[in-house]
Amino acid sequence: MSFSGKYQLESQEGFVEFMKAVGLPDDMIEKGKEIKSVSEIEQNGDQFKVTVTTGAKVLTNSFTIGQEAELETLTGEKIKAVVNKEGNKLKVVLNKITSVTELVDGNTLVNTLTLGSLVYKRISKRLA
């Protein structure tokens, strides 16, 4: 199953607590709560380009499965990491945050970020 497509955030759990823990300022957390971000994924074999647009902020990461790449985090920090694919899941560890992106069915993308005991879950639906 290909990850390629555009997905709009439909719901999220644990956003405020997680963003505070990663050091995002309160004003950005308040703005971010209501914005329905759009994730666009381009997959070509093991090569991926992921663009997440949240309001005026655009975050783009490109990587190849199993190879080290420089990835930008939610806070704008750049970290070298390796993204691995396990079935229909993409998994990467950025500092202390583990990110798992799963294509649940052809139209639902679930991204789970874990930092210690904190979990931030984002559920996005494919746009037509």
From TrEMBL:
Keyword DNA damage: yes or no? no
Q: Which GO terms describe its cellular component?
A: cytoplasm
The UniProt keywords, alphabetically, are:
Cytoplasm, Lipid-binding, Transport
* InterPro entries recorded: Calycin, Fatty_acid-bd, ILBP
Q: Name one GO biological process term.
A: fatty acid transport
The Swiss-Prot or TrEMBL record annotates one GO molecular function as:
fatty acid binding
Localization, per the record, is: Cytoplasm
Listed CDD domains: FABP1
Function field: Binds free fatty acids and their coenzyme A derivatives, bilirubin, and some other small molecules in the cytoplasm. Involved in intracellular lipid transport.
UniProt comment concerning the protein's domains? Forms a beta-barrel structure that accommodates hydrophobic ligands in its interior.
The UniProt entry's sequence similarity note says: Belongs to the calycin superfamily. Fatty-acid binding protein (FABP) family.
Q: Which PANTHER family match?
A: FATTY ACID BINDING PROTEIN (PTHR11955)
The name of this protein is Fatty acid-binding protein, liver
Read off the lineage from the record: Eukaryota, Metazoa, Chordata, Craniata, Vertebrata
